[in-house]
Design goal:
Distance between the termini: 18 Å
CATH topology: Jelly Rolls
Number of domains: 1
Oligomer: single chain
Structural class: mainly beta
Order of helices and strands: EEEEEEEE
Length: 136
Amino acid sequence: MRFQMSTQFEEGVADVDPVAAPQNILTEHMGTPDKYAPEDPDALFLALLGTAAETVTLDLYLLIESKEPAAQPSEYVEAGTRWFRFATGIVVTNGTLQKVEADLPAGGIVYARRTADSITAGQTRSLLMSWVHAKQ
């Protein structure tokens, strides 16, 4: 499987709520589907690269754009940006592929907000994300 997004999560570092404080979000936790993603994705696959039974618990948000898409993720870090949560409490465990079904717009920007983790102390782990068309 080809993943279109990779982001880093450091053990125990809390993420900002993008609805409450969009100007403080971590741009490295934002992702967009690349040219290999389907035009009409209806699911995300998530994988954690870690060790043993490490997990990351996530809330997933979608950016609703009211203007032309920005060229850089940093342009979305401003007050008034509209993020909407579409999945909550998603637990991604090392060694498993987690599927999240959602109707996502083509080219939709997703923010993965970590709410908890069991990453080994002092370590950083990668979360991989892929936009797919899973329905038959």
